[in-house]
Give the backbone structure.
Amino acid sequence: MLITLWLRVGALLGKTLLWLLGLGLLGWALSSAWFAWHHSGAVSAQEQIPPGEAAMTQGIIQTAVRIVDQHREGTRYLRDAHAKAHGCVKAEVQVLEQLAPELRQGVFAEPGKIWQANIRLSNGNAYPQFDSIRDARGMAIKLLDVTGPQLLKEQPLRTEQDFVMFNHPNFFVSDVAEYAQNVAAQADGKKVLAFFPGWDPRSWQVRHLFIALATLSPAPTSPTQTTYFSVSPYKFGSANAKFRVAPDPASCPSYELPAQNQDLPNFLRSALTQQLSTDRVAACFVLQIQRQDPSKYMPLEDTSIEWRESDAPFETVARVRIAPQDFDTPAQNLACDNQSFNPWFGLEEHRPIGGINRLRKAVYEAVSDYRHSRNAEQ
């Protein structure tokens, strides 16, 4: 009797699980079809600023300052993101000799031109943590002695062009409104709830949660063996484009990094030191652009959407070479910490566009001013 009962219960549970699996697959198929339909077709090649964005930006600045206050290292105030550097190094960025005429824009206008540059390599978290912890990894490039009118009219004496990137092609928020909700939740220590702002399932940001989890990837072997993306779009002359920096081992001497002790808290800095300072081997990258094709679904105002390479391939415009050097000294590390990178430091030909970049302009400036002023008081 009991055996028969258990068999019937087992059969019922099996059928229920199959039904649930079928419903799950159907839901996945329908949501995938809806996403493909909703995210297809032509887009605007012009920025579209939503109402209320300026007010939301002011709220985000207050939250960002709160994060800086929360994540001090002793008495020193750190960045609200990418607080931990693996090192700041000197580099050369050379525009391709045989660059197509339509790609000769801004700092890439002169084929063969060699720019001296500073590069900061970092973890993404707002507080320094072990490199073995899953995290975003960042690269910021600052070209030096760049002549021409700067984007920030109130700082006309700047002679820089910055490119700010991290190691994932799309962002885990779409726009300023979503960023405001997300960063406020994170500042309150509610990282997962940042993607579930209410009980209404329509407000849940499950796809963006998966993007965030993919962004928080395991540590690379070395900061020089990672690909970095601008995520948000920029002007490229009269076109719109995103940037990417990818390893280019063919342009450097062959090198195999000795195995690093990944239990050490700063093993990515150790890997960088091993290659550049101990073994004296250069690191090489290509700097590429991906131009927007407005007839494809390549939106300017939604940074959660990856621009597909099948719609617009990346095109190399320059090569980056980090020569062997000694960079890990107390004086250089302090200078690295004090250096500011901002996508709005640069020329009109590379003006940042889209909501997240408009937000960056206000937040980067406010947080940088606050951090530097508080550190100067120490």
The first helix runs from residue 2 to 38. The CA atoms of residues 84 and 128 lie 5 Å apart. The helical segments are 2-38, 53-70, 176-187, 206-215, 267-278, 330-338, 355-376. The two ends are 80 Å apart (CA to CA).
